[in-house]
């Protein structure tokens, strides 16, 4: 029995010694992802209206929208790439790109500032002689 295991191990070791490696050299040869791979969320901040639906639909709370500061933020390592935000966006300014966030020792948060957002409309003034209750 022991001799049989030794022969099986020797056969496996020789086979692996002369075969191609199962893994690729990662940094030198980056992976190419198939077309339908879910990767990371990207935003077209110019098309965004900062409605906040994406942040409310995010199951992990990785997206933060602040209308007052005109910012849209995503915590990359908190995002689980489910695509709920992309499906919910009324302006279709969110998309899923088939690349992933590079691993790192620090948590990353991407922040986008909307610069061309129109100012909120002024409240119409009450007609002369009338007061608001």
From TrEMBL:
Keyword Transport in record: no
Signal peptide: none
Stretch list, region Disordered: 105-133
InterPro entries: 4Fe4S_Fe-S-bd, 4Fe4S_Fe_S_CS, Fe-S_Ferredoxin
Protein name: 4Fe-4S binding protein
Keywords assigned: 4Fe-4S, Iron, Iron-sulfur, Metal-binding
Domain 4Fe-4S ferredoxin-type: 39-68, 70-99
Iron-sulfur as UniProt keyword: yes
GO molecular function: 4 iron, 4 sulfur cluster binding; metal ion binding
A Pfam family that the UniProt record links to this protein: Fer4_10
Biased composition (Low complexity): 118-133
